[in-house]
Write a structure and sequence with these properties.
It is a single chain. The protein has 15 helices and 16 strands. It is of the alpha+beta class. The chain has two domains: 245 residues, BirA Bifunctional Protein, domain 2, CATH 3.30.930; 90 residues, 3-Layer(aba) Sandwich (Rossmann fold). Strand 9 and strand 10 form a beta hairpin. The chain is elongated. It starts with 15 loop residues before the first helix and ends in a 7-residue tail after the last helix.
Length: 426
């Protein structure tokens, strides 16, 4: 006996009842991104592995443990399913010389892939919306991106969100701080787990993200990068705070916020919530002024963020902001010699008027068709029999609320459905 083939663990189907929520979310995001002048860019799901090694850092968790990488048997290339969108955006920008005429605001969406332990809001195939502002050096564009997210949360009806910000300074400040962290955490070598020991000599900033309960007091007393940042970065960060306060946006400075990717500098930020348990970050980003040069382009500043669709949908459900799907306006039932063609014509005329209409398919008598009409949640049944067609009319039967079945002309039916009432009766 053949066994059923199931979806790969951590890669989920999105069923019709869920797709409605996804569409609602996507429409809101597209609208808000467009309001701020961001243009959509689309790029491949598969990229050269080297793109992510160069951008994310060879010793990051994503590159070392989480990427889906494989060898193309036809030409021997190492390829990777994209784990994030910033590197692909910048690769496309450089390849097509999109910055030739000045700065750009771009956004993207789609599935990303990381081999993580699946849990609520975190999957191996997950979906992101992200945006990137390229060629803008000041804190104004960072403030605008954060203001954009505030508008989006309002449109989506999300509450219980906290904005956390920090500054990582420039490369020299981070290099000096890393030396301090190595010296500090080396004192506690016996308490460090294997993961922390590995990070100590590769990326000690990542130790600050450790969830090991035994290390929390040690981490809390570790040197703070924000105290060591350069004067320019400090001024940049102060300006950002001033702009956010001027816009009425509340935030907290989290000096332990470092982000998990090597390419960030200066500003980093996250939107976090308590509604999703341990997976509390729903949007994160920051500035990455050195990344374009790192990928082979001329130096250009950049900043952006990404947000997880699955977590946003969980938040919408928690906040009760999911809008129920609109049921069909009408369900067309027909029976009798020569009625099928008339049913098609009538249904298309109803749709031409802007109505959402389901046409019965699969045969069956009027009784079974009306049962299907009721199950469809349509507000009306449009009935076409031989008598109706002979007289150039149709029968309109309310399926929800008050009203009686009436035999009327098509134009009257359209008006009645739109007004939510029938005219006359049998």
């Amino acid at each position: 006996m053949n066994t059923k083939i199931q979806a790969i663990r951590g890669m989920n189907d999105i069923l019709p009842q869920d797709s409605i929520v996804w569409a609602q979310l996507e429409a809101n995001i597209r609208n808000v991104f467009g309001q701020y002048g961001y243009q959509e860019i689309r790029f491949p799901i598969v990229e050269a592995t080297g793109l992510f090694i160069r951008s994310l850092g060879e010793v990051t968790d994503i590159v070392e443990k989480e990427m889906y990488t494989f060898i193309d048997n036809l030409n021997g290339e190492s390829l990777t399913l994209r784990p994030e969108g910033t590197a692909s955006t910048l690769r496309a920008v450089l390849e097509h010389n999109l910055l030739y005429d000045g700065p750009k605001r771009l956004w993207y969406s789609g599935p990303m892939f990381r081999h993580e332990k699946p849990q609520r809001g975190r999957y191996r195939q997950f979906h992101q919306f992200g945006l990137e502002a390229l060629g803008f050096p000041g804190p104004d564009v960072e403030a605008e991106q954060i203001i954009l997210t505030v508008r989006l949360w309002r449109e989506l009806g999300l509450t219980d969100l906290q904005l956390q910000i920090n500054s990582l300074g420039d490369a020299d400040a981070r290099t000096k701080h890393r030396a301090k962290l190595v010296e500090y955490f080396s004192r506690y070598d016996e308490q460090l787990g294997e993961e922390e020991k590995r990070r100590l000599h590769t990326n000690p900033l990542r130790i600050l993200d450790s969830k090991n309960p035994a290390l929390q007091d040690i981490i809390a007393a570790a040197p703070i990068l924000l105290r060591d940042i350069d004067a320019e970065s400090r001024h940049h960060f102060d300006q950002l705070q001033s702009l956010l306060r001027g816009a009425g946006i509340a935030f907290i400075i989290n000096p332990r916020l470092v982000r998990g990717l090597d390419y960030y500098n200066r500003t980093v930020f996250e939107w976090v919530t308590t509604k999703l348990g341990s997976q509390g970050t729903i949007c994160a980003g920051g500035r990455y002024d050195g990344l374009i040069e790192q990928l082979g382009g001329k130096p250009q500043p950049g900043c952006g963020f990404a947000m997880g669709v699955e977590r946003l949908i969980e938040m919408m459900k928690e906040c009760g902001s999911v809008t129920a799907a609109k049921p069909p306006d009408a369900y067309v039932a027909y029976q009798g010699e020569g009625t099928m063609q008339a049913a098609f014509t009538t249904t298309e005329a109803l749709r031409d008027s802007g109505l959402k209409v389901v046409l019965h398919a699969g045969g069956g008598g009027f009784k079974s068709q009306l049962k299907r009409a009721d199950v469809s949640a349509a507000r009306y049944a449009v009935i076409l029999g031989e008598d109706e067609i002979r007289n150039g009319k149709l029968s309109l039967k309310p399926l929800r609320g008050q009203g009686e079945q009436a035999t009327i002309e098509l134009a009257q039916a359209i008006e009645s459905i739109k007004q939510g009432q029938t005219h006359g009766s049998l």
